[in-house]
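By convention, the token line describes the chain's fold. To illustrate:
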Amino acid sequence: MLQGIAARITELYIADLSQLLQLSVDAPDVYAGTAALARLVIIAGTEPQLTLTRARYEIALQAGRDPALRTTIQAIADLLHRLVGEVVTHWQPAGDPLPKRIVEQQTNAMLTFIDGVLMSFVLGRPAVHDEAELDQLLQALLTGIETSYLAGAEQAPARPQ
């Protein structure tokens, strides 16, 4: 039964995430960047989607003890990682991208932050209240990691070639 529930949750999440990815291609001015991601998170924290988000967290906890279940819901994590990675990549300044490892750190930090925000919705104690607030926090997170990297790069001694 849990396997069937996990499969259905995965199917629904993949459909939603795939739709957002497609919208970002079709209408990049409206559905691109951190604002679109913030919109998706706020929707996931609001009924009727909140019920699905709660179910996803319940299944994720169970999947920690059930490898077959973990495999089923891994598709959600993979697609979410791809989506956030694309948002972070497109967020980078044109012509002067950060090294891939820094972009990956930004992606992982955003995923971790988003999971925390979603958990706050699941627990009934929202950490954010609207898309604009969440968008501002997501951009601040990306900027903070970039600033930290650039400050570290300036202080680091030059490496011999």
